[in-house]
Amino acid sequence: MTQARTLLNTVGNTTGNVFADNYGSASFQATITSSNNTTVSCTITIQCSLDTTNWIDVGTITLSGNPSATDGFYCIGQWVAYRAKTSAVTGSVADITVNIGTA
Fold it and tell me: Among 8, 37, 80, 88, which is 20 to 30 Å from 69 by CA?
């Protein structure tokens, strides 16, 4: 892996910024953390695009844990850009972070 960057950092339902990728593959890791040691959960959809206008869902990460949870996946493809979207956020969330690593 040559570089890792934050794709999204939030506490609620949102769509993150576009990450331009000139490589051929990417790893994604998402983490959710509770603000008061209770169960938190969310769904994160990773999207890709060739034109940064029309987006395709390339994978989904479902997180649930007390006080935190993390998961991820690896994607092979020659996409121009990626972004992350959060939904179904529940609990007292202190932080939701999605990182991308490219090689």
Answer: 80
